[in-house]
Amino acid sequence: xxxxxxxxxxxxxxxxxxxxxxxxxxxxxxxxxxxxxxxxxxxxxxxxxxxxxxxxxxxxxxxxxxxxxxxxxxxxxxxxxxxxxxxxxxxxxxxxxxxxxxxxxxxxxxxxxxxxxxxxxxxxxxxxxxxxxxxxxxxxxxxxxxxxxxxxxxxxxxxxxxxxxxxxxxxxxxxxxxxxxxxxxxxxxxxxxxxxxxxxxxxxxxxxxxxxxxxxxxxxxxxxxxxxxxxxxxxxxxxxxxxx
Length: 244
Description:
It comes from Candidatus Borkfalkia excrementavium. By secondary structure, this protein is an all-alpha fold.
């Protein structure tokens, strides 16, 4: 049992997680040494991503904790868009995604969610909802006099797409987060110009970007394996069924 737990993560995943943690700790010690809430959020966040990359619901539990801490951190720099987005959208959607993942285990294995392939028409609905959410949030962020409005607004769009695809169990959820990571790196680099301690947050999202790229690749690998084990090898397109 212990050996199985130790070998749960591949060598690549262990190296990725250890490297991410080491970089986050190093940058914190160099540029910060005070904002331990930021350090805690970064470590929880990067750990959630390695579990998410495995399709493990534990990742969503950790994402809930990260969203709460990140919302507090965003408030300290008047990034009200980030605060509202993560506390009002990412956190509750992580709860919904957690429920969806627990309800859809692969072959009864609750440590791995069943990968879903969304229908051809669903992306249009997703982008329509994303546009509506973005417009609504733009006026909310403007009312709060949010710092760096344009990237903050774009962050809302990418966050919505990411959490929507996470809930739908699509491998492309990770690419949604990759796009969001890029926006957040820009936001926190801008913040670090005024306060260098925020560079640790920017580095945190740089680590997230690498982990999310790996997550996408691993979910595609999971998708092929899951379809193949159902006897769909060589005819994946015909065997992949849209899940309602």
